[in-house]
Design brief:
Number of domains: 3
Strand content: 25-35%
Helix content: 10-25%
CATH class of the largest domain: Alpha Beta
CATH superfamily of the largest domain: Glycosidases
CATH topology of the largest domain: TIM Barrel
Structural class: alpha+beta
């Protein structure tokens, strides 16, 4: 199956466990660089840096939900111009390996699957269930005609296409995998197909497909992985489809790093066995609301905005010690010299920007979209909301005295307001005490602001719904009669939230301290390292605030939010991402193309407490770190 055929010559073929590129012996020296995590103004810059490190190939996932967030025609323009990115890779002299999924993981929201697909009632994801394969086929009918002309057999740079992604750690529906391979081929994909799975018998059994090259993903022990793959596919060359040279971070944890020495040694060992793709060569940024989440130890683990991943090319394009260590290894194996990397992009001077308060939180959100009325609280999926916030409102009659408000199931984080006062902040619930609510015998104005912290991107909880799932209880009685206001932050401009409103004096909230602040899953503290008071927010004002950044010429910068709690930040009308006092990330990267000469408006939507200023930093601060090497 690795051989060329006369009608559709493939760039990459193999025989006798050796890899060839147009019949010449070849080693893939690839690195992951995701177009969707880099501002398009920096695509060429980052590709040049990858080339300078010694790579001959770039690989990128293709996130379905980035191109088709809602039903309708997919978007391939601007930051979604996949063909332009692939063309720039070709201009840089790089081959391209594409990974179109349809599931990609990638610590990306919902593993790349659109929520309108995962929200289909009864659907069995990543399977031969027609409720899944039908929208997948429709999506691929748009995508594959764009990829096929860019294949090496047609003069383009695409030399390989990955089938699904680490499927063997999820399921074993081989009918689905065979259907997907047939769909790729019938859609015009003639280049090498490969799968990528962890190097265990179980994972390879679930994810491998006859006639499709089997590759492995791991962070260490390449000789063990190579031996296992050769024992199963003796005729195939060894390919590490993901060499984990760093790792991603979750909110509330430490920043994960891997030493340059450890990474370089493993890279050297992999290249002694065959070919490699470094994950990540350049991590980039989870702009907007696209960071995903994991679920482990009965906890949701949302991923931070930065996807720096301790990669050799850092989030702002700076080359690191790891870059030069890897370059040395790649030079030795390639036996050729590589170009020097471009200069590091300049940064703005450090500066302190005073903020202007514009609007309190709940008034800013109550009318941003038409309300949906229903007897029971609806999930994000049921009202057609992909990401952001949902404001739930009800007016139950509550007898005089203290009562307990509970959520049987909540995804993911709720700020509960009783008669306009914050009663507490609640994370995903399993069991335990609820929030104390004071009744007066009259209608209670109950407002619950629920935040989707990122859809799960890996494991059996993939596709899990968001919002209030099983209703709200007061003293074990369901509250009925709800109004839901969807707040799609990634689709709103700051003006819709009141950022263009008059400057206001900050109201006094010194006495507004919730009695009950946090309840966590199954008794676990979440996020890791966060205190109850910290997770709920100390006395302060939540809402919309702005700052002005005036510059002569655009350059990169990093934003810090001293005194702030948790929220979202826009540069102009571009939603940069989340910040959160629990860390580890303390700064958010702002690429120069988001700025312009003159005055730039920065807007924050703060959920807990607004600080007095926003700081411009000259470098990233990703928090306290720990050495981490992921193994299977």
């Amino acid at each position: 199956m690795g051989e060329n055929n006369a009608l559709n010559p493939r760039a990459l073929t193999y025989r006798d466990a050796s890899l060839y590129r147009f019949d010449r012996p070849h080693t893939i020296r690839s690195g992951a660089l995701h177009y969707f995590r880099v501002h398009p103004g920096y695509w060429a810059d980052r590709l040049a840096r990858a080339k300078a490190m010694g790579l001959n190939t770039i690989d990128t996932y293709i996130p379905w939900n980035f191109h088709q967030q809602y039903r309708g025609e997919p978007d391939f323009s601007g930051p979604r111009d996949l063909e332009r990115f692939i063309g720039l890779a070709a201009d840089a002299g790089l081959d391209v390996m594409v990974r179109p999924g349809p599931y990609i993981c990638a610590e990306w929201d919902n593993g790349g699957l659109p929520s309108w697909v995962t929200g289909i009632p009864g659907i069995r994801l990543r399977s031969s269930d027609e409720r899944f394969t039908t929208p997948v086929a429709e999506w691929l009918s748009h995508l594959l005609p764009r990829l096929a002309p860019l294949q090496a057999s047609a003069g383009g740079p695409i030399v390989a296409v990955q089938l699904e992604n680490e499927y063997g750690s999820y399921g074993d529906d081989h009918e689905y995998l065979r259907w997907l391979a047939d769909t790729f081929r019938s859609g015009g994909i003639t280049e090498l197909l490969y799968t990528a799975d962890g190097p265990t018998e179980l994972m390879l059994d679930g994810g491998s497909v006859p006639g499709v090259l089997t590759a492995a993903t791991f962070g260490s022990q390449p000789s063990t992985a190579a031996a296992l793959l050769r024992s199963r596919r003796a005729d195939e060359p060894f390919l590490c489809a993901e060499f984990w040279d760093g790792w991603f971070d979750h909110w509330g944890e430490r920043h994960h790093v891997r030493s340059a020495e450890s990474g370089a040694q493993s890279l050297d060992d992999i290249l002694a066995e065959g070919s490699v793709s470094i994950y990540m060569a350049h991590g980039g940024t989870n702009f907007g609301l696209r960071a995903g989440a994991n679920f482990d130890d009965f906890q949701l683990q949302p991923t931070i905005t930065s996807y720096d991943s301790d990669a050799p090319i850092s989030e702002n394009g700076a080359v690191t010690d790891k870059f030069f260590s890897f370059r040395k290894v790649l030079t030795q194996h390639a036996q050729e010299d590589f170009p020097e990397p471009p200069p590091v992009p300049p940064t703005l001077p450090e500066e302190s920007l005073p903020i202007t308060f514009r609007r309190e939180l709940l008034p800013a959100l109550r009318n941003v979209a038409p309300a949906v009325e229903f007897p029971a609280p609806q999930t994000f999926e049921e009202v057609g909301l992909d990401a952001g916030l949902m404001l739930y409102r009800a007016a139950p009659v509550v007898p005089d005295g203290k009562h307990v408000l509970e959520f049987p199931r909540l995804h993911d984080r709720a700020q509960v307001y009783s008669d306009g006062r914050l009663a507490g902040t609640v994370h995903r619930l399993g069991s335990g005490d609820g929030l104390a609510i004071e009744g007066t015998g009259d209608e209670l104005s109950l407002e619950i602001l629920v935040e989707n912290l990122g859809r799960i991107n890996y494991g059996p909880k993939l596709g899990e719904h968001k919002g209030i799932i099983d209703g709200v209880l007061i003293d074990r009685r369901l509250v009925m009669g709800w109004s839901m206001v969807p707040v799609p932050l990634d689709e709103l401009t700051p003006d819709a939230l009141g950022a263009n409103g008059p400057a206001l004096d900050m109201p006094d909230r010194s006495d507004d301290v919730p009695e009950t602040s946090l309840r966590a899953d199954a008794g676990a503290t979440w996020p890791a390292g966060a205190t109850a008071a910290g997770a709920a927010g100390v006395a302060g004002v939540a809402g919309v605030a702005t700052a002005e950044l005036t510059i002569d010429e655009p350059a990169d910068t990093f934003l810090a939010f001293p005194g702030f709690g948790k929220g979202f930040v826009w540069i102009g009308d571009f939603l940069l991402g989340r910040y959160w006092h629990v860390g580890p990330q303390r700064t958010l990267y702002v690429p120069a193309p988001l700025l312009h000469a003159g005055t730039n408006r920065i807007t924050v939507l703060e959920l807990e407490r607004i600080g007095e200023r926003i700081e411009l930093a000259s470098d990233a601060e990703l928090g306290p770190h720990e050495e981490y090497i992921e193994t299977i």
